[in-house]
Every structure is written in C-alpha cells, then in structure tokens.
Design goal:
Shape of chain A: globular
Oligomer: homotetramer
Low-confidence stretches of chain A: 1-11
Largest sheet of chain A: 5 strands, antiparallel
Mean pLDDT of chain A: 92
CATH class of chain A: Alpha Beta
CATH architecture of chain A: Roll
Helix content of chain A: 25-40%
Number of helices of chain A: 4
Largest interface: A-B, 22 and 22 residues
CATH superfamily of chain A: Hotdog Thioesterase
Number of domains of chain A: 1
C-alpha cells in the first residue's frame, strides 16, 4: 500500500492516509443507506489511522502524553449514498495545525470505482485530561507539521 | 409545555421545538463525554419532534407521501461537553425552505442551567423512494413555510 | 404514573420500573426495523431508570461510591419487530441479587397495545474503578434487596 | 489466511471464519471499555464474513434471493474488557441449521495474545421481505449444511 500511496502523493503533493472499511449492517438505517451520523465514526477511524501512519498511536497520545484531540467542530457533505457491504476508502489529510488547533479533512469514496460518497472536516483543540487547552509536545507536533499542505 | 413554548416564542419571534433527552451510557466514550457523532442522532430527534409539533409524523411523510428528507450536509459546533445522565434540551428551528431544499438549525443546552452544549445545522433535499429530488406536497410545504424565520 | 404503576405492582406483586422510549431513525437498519444490538441500549436505559426509581442515581453510584455495575452476560429474545417512531415501554425488574452479583430482567412492549416486542436479561458484577469485584455498600444494597422477587 | 485457517481447522475439526477488527473510539463508553451492546455489531460482522467465506454475499442473499436471516435470540458472555484500539479476532462457527432455523456461535479473542474477550450465540429465522418464515434455497442451504459441527 505504501508504494501506491506514495505514487498518489506525488500527484497531489500532499500526504494523506487511505483506510478501507466495509459498511456494516448496523450502520444502515431504514432508508437502506448509511445513517448520516455514522460518517463521523468513519472520520474518526481515518484520523486515527492518519496518526498511526505518521508514527503516533492515538491511544498512547491520550494515556502516556495526556493529549486529547477534542472535537470542537465537525462537518460532512453527503455526495452519494453508501450502502450495506460497500467497500469504502477514507482519505484523511491534515488541513491546518497551529498551536493547540488541528484540522483534518476527509474524503470518502467507493473502493470499486472511486465515486465520491462524502467529504468533511473536523476541527480539534488539544487538551489535557481536565479539558484544559495545551500544545502538543514537539515529538508529536513535529511529524504533524511536516504533513501540512504545501 | 405549549404555553411556555409560546412565551419563549413571543420573545424571539420565531417558532422552535424544544425536546428533552437524557444522555445514555451508550452515548458516552472513553473520554467520559458524549461521542461527537452522537449529536447528529439528537439533531434527528429534534427534527422529527419539530415536524410532529407542526402536524407531520415523519414516518408517514416517508411511508404515505413518499417524501424522504435526505441529509446533504450536517455540521456541529461543540461548546461544552455533555456527560452521562445529563438532561439536555434540543431546540430545533427551520432556517431555510425553498423548493426541495430544507435547512434546520439546532441548539443543545443543559436543562438545569441553560448552558450551551452544542449547536449545528443540517441541510436536506426532499426526495422520493428512488432518491429523485421532488417538492413537498402543499399539505406539508405550507405548515413548514409558516415556521420560516421572520 | 406512580399510581398506575402501584396498581400494576399489586397484581404481579413484584416491583418494576416502566420507562417509555420512542424509536429513533438512527436505531433502525436497512430491514426497516430496529437493529438487534440496540435493544441492549434500551435495557441500559431501563436499568438506570429502575435504579433512579428506588433512589440511586447510577452516575453517582459510579462517581461517588466507586461501584460499577459491569455486565458479564446479556441476552435478548426478539418477539416482534420494533419500527421507527414506535413508542415502547421498557419494564425492568430485579431478578437476582446476592453478594456482588445482580441480575435484571426486561420486557419491551408496544405502548399502544401492549404487544410483546422483546425480553431479556443482563447479569452484572459490582466492581470498583480497577475492575476488582466488590460488594455494594448497605445504603445501595438494602433498597435493591427490597425489590427482589417475592 | 486460508492456509492458516485450514491448519487451525484440522485441529478442532470444525470450520470457522476468523475476522480481525480494531476497536473504534466510538465503541467505547465512559468506563473506558467497549460498550456491551457493541459486541452484537461485531457478531454481525463475523456472521457476514462467515457467509462470504463459504460463498454467500449476504447483501445479495437479501436482495436477490429474498432471504433475510432475522435474529430471534442473541446472547453474549463478557470475559475480559475490550479497550480502544485493541485488535480483536472474531471467530464465527455454525452451531445449528435445520429448516428455517440457523444458529451461529462466536468467540472474540485478543489478536496479540489470544486471551478471551467474549463469546456468544445468535439464533435466526430465515424470512422473506414480509417477515414470513421460509427455507433457504438449496444453493444456500447446501454450503451452509457442510459447515455444521461434526
């Protein structure tokens, strides 16, 4: 996957993580499509894999470094419905990072034909256990900063 | 509740529905607060009660009138954390309605002290069963139009 | 509601809590009925309201008394489908309580005609924050014991 | 994976599917562990991959063959907590299949050390779109019957 990702990244010049998921029955609703709120869970999956990709395990970021990447704003635009058992790709990019503010962007596309399903953004504040704003320590901030859009 | 709502509405001059919920254990995450994606479920609850309040049962709108109020965009801003067993008020307003496009706005506040928890918006397209855009029939469009902001 | 509950309780001689919920769109799946895993969330809602009814606020039981009623077994039998916007009653009873072991029973029925939707059980161990088994303190154990089936 | 599965199957002589998942933040609750109801979503994931493994795509079973494998009973025993970001294996076996009744068994273990996390069962009735009980057609029943425990 790395090789292919690298190739893609050559094209658009910005790093992103691509994670594949399959739509669960539990995620659908009675309209026969994925319930709109569940896309935010997939954004979380993408965000966590983005961080893993650049060397962070988010669980340890919380437990060891006491940095909690708290959501302050979330947005999703729904382009075409996702259905049960569809394979989807979540593409996660870092859009902004300055001080305690981090913003991720997401694209969700069908794995079979690349058709757009949804895109969105989440904005975060880095906080400690007591929900007090704090900066990321350099060992986390530096690799993140390297993935900012050029 | 109607009387009190009426009073509130005199003040801000625009109709809104207010629905009370209690945070479920299932809705929290390991940070000890409500998972960010679950606010969109509460927006749905508010939206459905707004419609019930002005005379629609959304289930029948789907089943009898073949009108599906499909989400095309959703957004939430998180002001302060919601915690397990908190009682919250969801205030839902109609923000825009023209042709097949409907937009709702939401405020979520603590029931005990009115403190802001979150606010957001959802934008919808009215579609039929086949996801083809269609207008709402007048019996549904008219009561909705009356609740547009003045 | 208290008066009516009391009457019912005279009949079957055992205490139970009855809590009304309305099925959310988010809780349905593409079969058009409630996803089977969501009944366990409703059991949680019933359990928490049962405890509130006999004087406990479960949040404080966790936070103040450091007693966590951890699930060790859960079971549900599905009698008839629950659909979007249905109003349902969750009836929760204490079935067993000895030492650190607590078992609740649940019946879910339609609010309009009393038809059975599901029933089930959950078995719990009382634990502290470190997941070590501990007994409930008397102030919590005594009111619970009074609600054991006669 | 097939080769390794075959080896395991030589040992216990019964076919099972093994599917790996990673615990999502959304699946945890404020106790810091996975919410008990979410295990049933994982059972669904295991069940669907079991069926895929033996040649069924469950989505087509529903859409093309009008066979809905409706849950009539579900049970889970919780052995040890699952935590955020844990990798887990879901092992799904067919336990019973006769006429319209199908029963699956599940074991969930940690991927790193094989420690038991949970096990359970779900019992199903095969129904058509109208929730009327019907048998599976032979093309589906035969491969299923071959995976019954010996």
């Amino acid at each position: 996957m790395d090789g292919w990702l690298a190739r893609v990244n050559d094209v658009d010049d910005n790093f992103y993580n691509e994670t594949k998921i399959r739509v669960r029955y539990a995620e659908t609703d009675r309209m026969g499509v994925v319930y709109y709120g569940n896309f935010f869970t997939w954004f979380e999956v993408g965000r966590v894999e983005f961080l893993r990709d650049i060397g962070f395990r988010y669980r340890e970021v919380e437990e060891v470094d006491d940095c909690h990447i708290v959501v302050v704003e979330a947005q999703c635009r729904y382009r075409s419905p996702a259905r049960y058992d569809d394979e989807l790709l979540i593409r996660t990019r870092l859009k902004h990072f300055r001080g305690p503010v981090v913003r991720f962007g997401y694209e969700i596309v069908r794995a079979d034909n690349g058709a757009e399903v949804a895109d969105g953004e989440t904005t975060h504040l880095v906080c400690d256990r007591q929900m007090k704003v704090r900066p990321l320590p350099p060992k986390l901030a530096d690799p993140l900063r390297e993935r900012l859009p050029k």
